Amino acid sequence: MPDAAQPKPAPFTYRQAIREALAEEMRRDPTVVVMGEDVGAAGGVFKQTEGLLAEFGAARVIDTPISEAGAFGIAVGAAMTGLRPVFEVMFGDFLTLVMDQLVNQAAKVHYMSAGGFRVPLVLRTTIGTGANLGPQHSQSLHAWCAHIPGLKVALPSTPADAKGLLKAAIRDDNPVIVFEDRFSYTMAGAPPAEEIVPLGRAAIAREGRDATVIATGGMVRVALKAAELLERENISVEVIDPRTLVPLDVETLVASVRKTSRAVVVDLGHRSYGVTGEIAATVGELAFDWLDAPVMRLGAADVPIPVSRTLEPLSVPDAPRIAAAVRALVNR
User: Fold this and answer.
1) Check: CATH 3.40.50.920 for 203-330?
2) Considering 25, 37, 110, 137, which one is annotated as catalytic?
3) pTM higher than 0.85 for the full model?
4) Which fold has domain 12-189?
5) Where are the domains of the chain?
6) For residue 246, which of 109, 119, 170, 150 has the smallest C-alpha distance?
7) Whether 142 is catalytic
8) Mean pLDDT, each 10-residue run in order, the chain (332 residues)
9) Identical fold at 12-189 and 203-330?
């Protein structure tokens, strides 16, 4: 008979997943180094790197100055000369400060050198709204990176995927951008069933028959809530999590839409010229003959993210709005 007083195992959180992935890869490969502002002594602004400095030392867990452009340039050079840096940009908004090194150097060096150089580098950063941090700390700019040939882009939505995708990114010989929903760090989930989650393989987060919702990053759990709401109305929703935008698992997305004949694409980035448009166009081209209705898109409003506690929630998709979009398609 089990001992009732035996303590329950600690929940496996998104934050823990990031920390474990980094530590395990650093133990496995001595060329892996962690760089960024406050990643060492402070343990990361969201505590994702806590404990790494004590284990690996300041030569491999490197606190950089408050100069994202300069520090990231050093990381690109380190990657070209034999290291595997994991560079943290604490807020995704600050990608604006590293764009020259990221877009004009890291993404292109392999091509411009005819394969003579590789840039096995990971850039970790955050996205997400919900803390009233205002328009300079709440943007979701992952579509920018997905637009650049030479970069791979991952958006883990669960703790297991956060660990598995980050490990895959560190082992990849190309620059990979991992966007972490900062409001998922306390999210608990099952430990990963597999050590590595291959880049370019989508997940079926929930099976359904009446409509497909393709959601990215933190929007996956919002889509799952919408599916629960619709289940009460006998509407069965399939939720697909692409997990990576580049490479994109087109086959899984299209297979789902061919089955359900309806699709809604949900993303935390701005709706115009973004991820929702690209995925909707892909589905429309490859599953046109199976569609019973136009593909619908839900994204952030095309305004700077408000700091107002009242307005901020209205600027991004939520479960009721996703449910309303699906309901409209099913009832056409």
Assistant:
1) yes
2) 137
3) yes
4) Rossmann fold (3.40.50)
5) 12-189, 203-330
6) 150
7) no
8) 60 92 97 95 89 96 94 97 96 89 96 95 89 74 95 96 97 97 85 88 97 97 97 97 98 98 96 96 97 96 84 86 96 85
9) yes
